[in-house]
């Protein structure tokens, strides 16, 4: 296809011919016979956005779940009302997500029994680290004698019904945002898990280019429909083990496979950096989240050349709760961006959908403004420009900090906006997405 009259971020107005890859970029390209032509009318043409940390199955399941976080529910009565109104899924369960103790205190089976209808109900904490089940749900899984119905991620004892949600609606939403590629950061996926995701990509249910974190024993494997990324490790503060983490990293590196370590506390980051230094670095190693970064580890992040994939959107989504829960002297350490970039740390942004909202444009705005839901600026020194925020969603899947360009030979994945660059950067709004092109095919076109 041929995109006419597009404005690149550097201000040049060009035509772009694109198939599976970009084949030509220049002024006044002639249309070939029968070639599809899209007139950008001076709007911005970008490389398609890449969301560098998502959870596909969880995001698809969340679309059929009820949200019960502080943004939706204020107290126990509100939680009871929203659960009573919730429709159970085909499995007969009510699945709720996004819970925080600020709503009704720490949930256990007895409190959930008092607040929920007499159906199996499971409620996920917004961290993703805890599920709470009511008695009806415990009976369904054969654990009616469980003391409190609370199942922590680290325990590994909970097996829940798999809703096997379709990824089609999620893929369409990605396309509306101008997203042409995603990195699935779900940990410990088996080859069959990855084959299922690849099948969704090959079938067209998920049109985006798919990059998946995968265990090191799959290093070098070929799965049609996706590419394989680093091995993922989730850490929990109560089970931090430097020697074990070092050995795990070294074993992955021995297979020529990078690692990605989930770090949402200062302790987790300190242990991870020590393990990476002991095991030795590898191209493609990543830190996921880096939710809290103390000043004394910034230089280590830069020195190790590890890529930090972070989510400043949580400032916009949860910032007021952080101000209440996190000591004031640690506020400047939350979801850092500008100071890491200025120190030479490799950086990329993502949404962490469904644990964060899935709109990358909102994440960019959060990186620029650092405003909480109540409008308070949290981490003013961590603000970055709109240009920098956008660039952090334009990286390669394998090298998230290396920004893609629109040039011959580049992947044929593009995002066309209704506005020229100056106006687009001033707004950073998903409503500006006019068309999304993947492998030379239009997968989304806005109606105006």
CATH classification, class level of the largest domain: Alpha Beta
Share of residues in strands: 15-25%
CATH architecture of the largest domain: Alpha-Beta Barrel
Q: Outline the biggest β-sheet.
A: 5 strands, mixed
Counting structural domains, the number is 3
Give the beta-strand count: 22
Placed side by side, the strands forming the largest sheet appear as: 7-8-9-10-11
Overall, the morphology is: globular
**Percent in helix:** 25-40%
* Oligomer kind: single chain
Distance between the termini: 21 Å
Remind me, CATH topology of the largest domain?
TIM Barrel
Keywords:
TIM Barrel, alpha/beta, Urease, subunit C, domain 1, 448 residues, 15 helices, 3 domains
3D structure, described in words:
The chain is an alpha/beta fold and 448 residues long. The protein folds into three domains: 1-48 and 404-448, Urease, subunit C, domain 1 (Roll); 50-56 and 165-403, Metal-dependent hydrolases (TIM Barrel, Alpha-Beta Barrel); 64-155, Roll (Diaminopimelate Epimerase, Chain A, domain 1), CATH 3.10.310. The chain has 15 helices and 22 strands. The chain has a five-stranded mixed beta sheet with strand order 7-8-9-10-11. Strands 15-16-17-18-19 form a five-stranded parallel beta sheet. α8 (242-254) packs across α9 (266-279) and α11 (313-325) crosses α13 (360-369). The longest helix has 14 residues, at 266-279. Its EC number is 3.5.1.91. InterPro entries: Amidohydro_3, Metal-dep_hydrolase_composite, Metal_Hydrolase.
């Amino acid at each position: 296809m041929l995109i006419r009259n597009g404005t690149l971020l550097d201000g040049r107005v060009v035509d772009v011919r694109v198939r599976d890859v970009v084949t030509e970029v220049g002024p006044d390209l002639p249309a070939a016979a029968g070639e599809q032509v899209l007139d950008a009318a001076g709007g911005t043409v970008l490389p398609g956005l890449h969301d560098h940390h998502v959870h596909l199955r969880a995001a698809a399941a969340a679309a059929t779940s009820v949200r019960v976080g502080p943004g939706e529910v204020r107290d126990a009565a509100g939680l009871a009302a929203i659960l009573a109104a919730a429709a159970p899924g085909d499995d007969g369960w009510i699945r709720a997500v996004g819970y925080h103790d600020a709503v009704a205190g720490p949930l256990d089976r007895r409190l959930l029994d008092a607040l929920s209808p007499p159906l199996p109900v499971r409620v996920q904490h917004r961290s993703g680290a805890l599920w709470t089940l009511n008695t009806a749900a415990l009976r369904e899984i054969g654990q009616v004698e469980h003391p409190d119905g609370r199942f922590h991620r680290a325990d590994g004892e909970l097996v829940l019904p798999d809703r096997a949600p379709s990824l089609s609606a999620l893929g369409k939403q990605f396309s509306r945002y101008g997203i042409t590629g995603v990195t699935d950061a779900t940990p410990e996926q088996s080859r069959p898990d990855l084959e299922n995701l690849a099948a969704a990509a090959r079938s067209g249910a998920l049109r985006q280019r798919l990059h998946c974190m995968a265990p090191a024993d799959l290093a070098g494997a070929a799965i049609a429909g996706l590419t394989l990324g680093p091995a993922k490790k989730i850490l929990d503060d109560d089970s931090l083990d430097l020697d074990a983490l070092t050995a795990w990293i070294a074993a992955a590196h021995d297979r020529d496979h990078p690692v990605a370590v989930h770090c949402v506390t200062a302790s987790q980051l300190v242990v991870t950096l020590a393990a990476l230094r002991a095991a030795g670095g590898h191209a493609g190693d990543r830190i996921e989240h880096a939710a809290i970064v103390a000043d004394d580890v910034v230089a280590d992040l830069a020195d190790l050349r590890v890529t930090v994939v972070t989510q400043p959107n949580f400032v916009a989504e949860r910032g007021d709760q952080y101000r209440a829960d996190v000591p004031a002297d640690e506020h400047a350490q939350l979801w850092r961006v500008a100071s890491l970039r200025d120190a030479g740390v490799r950086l990329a942004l993502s949404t962490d959908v469904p644990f964060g909202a899935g709109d990358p444009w909102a994440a960019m705005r959060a990186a620029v403004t650092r405003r909480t839901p109540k409008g308070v600026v949290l981490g003013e020194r961590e603000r970055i420009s709109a240009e920098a925020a956008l660039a952090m969603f334009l990286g390669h899947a394998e090298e998230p900090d290396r920004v893609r360009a629109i040039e011959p030979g580049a992947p044929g994945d593009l995002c066309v906006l209704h506005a020229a660059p100056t106006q687009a950067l001033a707004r950073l709004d998903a409503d500006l997405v006019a068309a999304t092109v993947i492998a030379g095919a239009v997968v989304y076109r806005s109606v105006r």
